């Protein structure tokens, strides 16, 4: 009896050890490239900073590109893959078509990194670092990026269509969608705060400014109608944050209190529901918003990474090797 119990205990210890070993294997780490490519982070940073210096909006576009990557089969840069005989790209699903951008910036950063350490650094890690560097450049929060993601060999337009939020989504739908990725309501509201920078196309806010949405400031709607006709002009741009579209601050939340959210999915965060209190808090307290945003970005970057021997290190981000 004693022997059996001891055998069981020993087996249990070994099982636990194995489990924690494989958990370690799957874990991302900020020092992943410390030995294999010590200059990776500085190389990416230089490349990203010069792209944003050329076009400031690129900061917004890169943060969004990382988000649209992570929500579709995890942060594996499936979004970067172009159409090919073996791949149907995610770039043309409704939430991405004529909308996500920054591909060439990631390609440039990748080729700069390939010059210093060929075949070592994944596109997925480059995109995660790019999003952090972009936030820093426009005065947003800073965080330490976990590393060790690998790149997918597949893309999934059907998962992209299913899992990326839409500007017509209601609050509960947004909460559920983020919950399904391990992000709670507070994370969702904090991350939506990245709409403090960047632009949206007329096609995404026309319904809100011409409809009988009582949840919109009348003067704001009139201003936005000037450059967004009732028909045509789908691609005309307006800033998501009317006050300070080029700097990362908490004005997005202050706008919502005044019913000046540009997208319907922005205003639903402050429309009498459960997230009102969070919006209120972030509008009053920029430092809480800043630290919550940083932690939520880390959480988002940790969604279902490919690690260990799963996936590949792509040589060119837009195609499978
Ligand atoms: C909560 C659900 C969300 C919805 C429904 C949504 C929807 C949108 C839409 C419709 C646009 C305008 C796209 C266009 O007209 O081309 C946009 C832009 C943007 N989104 Fe979101 N978004 C959401 C959450 C997020 C999150 C979580 C992030 C980042 C963490 C993010 C970052 C951005 C940025 C930075 C832009 C501006 C991009 C640019 O100027 O290129 N969004 N979003
Ligand atoms: C994407 O946008 C282009 C240009 O507006 C359009 O021609 C095409 O049909 C769209 N693709 C899909 C899959 O909707
Ligand atoms: C808005 O309301 C007016 C008056 O009630 C109505 O005539 C119009 O069709 C409505 N417009 C939309 C887009 O619902």
TrEMBL record:
Q: Which cysteines are joined by disulfide bonds?
A: 37-117, 70-75, 123-317, 202-228
**Active-site residues per Swiss-Prot or TrEMBL entry:** 68
Q: What class of enzyme is it?
A: oxidoreductase
Entries under CDD domains matching the protein? secretory_peroxidase (cd00693)
User: Per the database record, which ranges form the Plant heme peroxidase family profile domain?
Assistant: 27-321
Protein's organism: Hibiscus syriacus (Rose of Sharon)
Which GO biological process categories is it annotated with? hydrogen peroxide catabolic process; response to oxidative stress
Q: What residues does Ca(2+) 1 bind to?
A: 69, 72, 74, 76, 78, 90
Q: What does this protein do?
A: Removal of H(2)O(2), oxidation of toxic reductants, biosynthesis and degradation of lignin, suberization, auxin catabolism, response to environmental stresses such as wounding, pathogen attack and oxidative stress. These functions might be dependent on each isozyme/isoform in each plant tissue.
Q: How is the cofactor bound?
A: Binds 2 calcium ions per subunit. Binds 1 heme b (iron(II)-protoporphyrin IX) group per subunit.
Which residues does the record give as heme b binding sites? 195
Q: Which domain of life is it from?
A: Eukaryota
Q: What is the first-listed, main subcellular location in coarse terms?
A: secreted
Which residues hold substrate? 165
Reported EC number(s) for this entry are 1.11.1.7
**Swiss-Prot/TrEMBL cofactor(s):** Ca(2+); heme b
Q: Which UniProt keywords apply?
A: Calcium, Disulfide bond, Glycoprotein, Heme, Hydrogen peroxide, Iron, Metal-binding, Oxidoreductase, Peroxidase, Secreted, Signal
Binding annotation for Ca(2+) 2: 196, 241, 244, 249
Against Gene3D superfamilies, the record matches this protein to: 1.10.520.10, Peroxidase, domain 2
The catalytic activity, as recorded, is: 2 a phenolic donor + H2O2 = 2 a phenolic radical donor + 2 H2O
Its subcellular locations are: Secreted
Q: Which residues form the signal peptide?
A: 1-26
The record's comment on protein family reads: Belongs to the peroxidase family. Classical plant (class III) peroxidase subfamily.
Any GO molecular function = heme binding
Q: Which GO terms describe its cellular component?
A: extracellular region
Transition state stabilizer (site feature) positions: 64
For this entry, the protein name equals Peroxidase
């Amino acid at each position: 009896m004693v022997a059996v119990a001891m055998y069981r205990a020993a087996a249990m210890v070994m099982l636990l050890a194995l489990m924690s070993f494989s958990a370690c294997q799957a874990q991302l780490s900020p020092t992943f490239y410390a030995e294999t490519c010590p200059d990776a982070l500085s190389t990416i940073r230089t490349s990203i900073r010069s792209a944003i210096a050329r076009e400031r909006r690129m900061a917004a576009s890169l943060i969004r590109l990382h988000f649209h990557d992570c929500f579709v089969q995890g942060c594996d840069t499936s979004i970067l893959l172009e159409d090919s005989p073996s791949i149907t790209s995610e770039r043309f699903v409704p939430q991405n078509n004529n909308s996500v951008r920054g591909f060439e910036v990631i390609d440039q950063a990748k080729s700069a990194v390939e010059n210093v350490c060929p075949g070592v650094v994944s596109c997925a890690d480059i995109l995660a670092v790019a999003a952090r560097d972009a936030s820093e450049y426009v005065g947003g929060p800073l965080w330490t990026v976990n590393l060790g993601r690998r790149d997918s060999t597949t893309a999934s337009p059907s998962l992209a269509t299913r899992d990326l939020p839409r500007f017509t989504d209601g609050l509960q739908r947004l909460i559920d969608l983020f919950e399904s990725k391990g992000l709670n309501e507070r994370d969702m509201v904090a991350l939506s705060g990245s709409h403090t920078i960047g632009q949206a196309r007329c096609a995404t806010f026309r319904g809100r400014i011409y409809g009988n949405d009582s949840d919109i400031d009348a003067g704001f709607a009139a201003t936005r109608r000037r450059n967004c006709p009732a028909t045509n002009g789908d691609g005309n741009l307006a800033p998501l944050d009317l006050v300070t579209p080029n700097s990362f601050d908490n004005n997005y939340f202050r706008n919502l209190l005044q019913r000046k959210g540009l997208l319907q999915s922005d205003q639903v965060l402050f429309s009498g529901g459960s997230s009102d209190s969070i919006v209120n808090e972030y509008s009053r307290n920029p430092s809480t918003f800043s630290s919550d945003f940083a932690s939520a970005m880390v959480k988002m970057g940790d969604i279902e990474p490919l690690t260990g021997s799963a996936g590949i290190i792509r040589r060119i981000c837009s195609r499978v090797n």
